[in-house]
Amino acid sequence: MRRRWTERARAAWRWGRKNRYTLADVGYALGSLPFVVAGMVISLNGDVGWGLDALLDGMAVLSPITGLFLGLQLVLVVPGLVALAVLARRTSPQWLLWSSLLLTAAFGNVYAAPVALYSYAAWFPDRRRLLLLWSCAHFAALTATYSGRESILVVPLTMSFLVFPLLFGLWVGTRRQLVENLRERAERLEREQHLMAESAIAAERTRIAREMHDVVAHRVSLMVLHAGGLEVSAPDERTAKAAELIRTTGREALAELREILGVLRDGGDTAPTAPQPVLDDLGKLVDNARAAGMTVVLSATGTPRRLPAQVERTAYRVVQEALTNAAKHAPGAPVDVHVDHGDRELTLTVANAAATDTTADPVPGSGYGLVGLRERLAMVGGTMVAYPLPDGGWWLRAAVPVPPASDTAGAEAADTVEEPQ
Predict the structure, then answer these.
(1) Do 119 and 96 meet the contact criterion of CB atoms below 8 Å apart?
(2) pTM here?
(3) Where in this chain does the entry annotate a coiled-coil region (predicted)?
(4) Out of 106, 165, 344, 397, which could bridge 51 as a Cys pair, Cβ 3.0 to 4.6 Å?
(5) What is the pLDDT of residues 352-369, one digit of tens each?
(6) What distance, in Å, lies between the first and last C-alpha atoms of the chain?
């Protein structure tokens, strides 16, 4: 029960904060009604009269019931119109000001004037606020005209009664304008910072693309060129096949490098047009590693099925990076690659023994391979564990969450439906 009342109180509080301006206007309108009605009653009693003189004289000729009826109409209708003007004080404060002025001129009723002056000063531009000084003086003069006694004190009292709401409205309007200017300045500064960040990113992309083209692409092109020459002039068939593998791998690397450079230079998120690797390409990846002299055993458990393209591409890159690291840091060591097609998870395990070819020069690494794999796996919700083995080898395990088999089966069935011609 307490929780229900707490939720209701919070909902009421949120509703009140959302509609606080409307509630304030309603409060002002209701609060002004008693004062306006009291002023109307005083006016109808004949204490003040300029606009009411002719009306009261005419009402005296009528029957008492008719005069009472007209008086009640004035007491009820005029305050209602003033209350409506108060409700519209934010959108049309000039109507409230003029209605208050007419109310004062006709009935000597100045009780709606403070709200009118405050609203006009708070919601209208500075150029129009000069009219308020004239309005205050006019209100005071009218009140002094209606008062038949102590007219000297009526003017300063009325001015003080009207000046304070005017000054408060001027302060509120100036503060609102200042806050609005600060907000616009902050938004403009944020847009400028965003544009500067985009320009810096574009410049950095261009610089990286230029360096990769000048350094990496040039050296890979030289490797492909020398491998092609070695393939032609190889003394034996084994050397020729190795040179052919180097040449084709280098060409593929150059093609992928061109796509990466294109994305960096364009600065967009356009996907490469070439087919992206999937799990079915693991066999070709292992064959290339074997052709390069590695001993790789590929095994799989579970039922293979189609998975989201990003998941399959990530799994392929994990195995590719693991084989590359094994070739760099453990040349000649056997490598075991195991793929487990689970119902909820795709698990990749790559393990290699210690290096057996101690005569080969170690290949320097960038140090960012495993970091890049963790980031790539995190994008698809996967995890990775990698650590060295006691015998000098290395063990890596990556797990990627996958949709249930029923969901992927439905997706495969939908993809196999031919579109109508």
Answers:
(1) yes
(2) 0.43
(3) 172-199
(4) 106
(5) 988 776 555 555 554 556
(6) 63
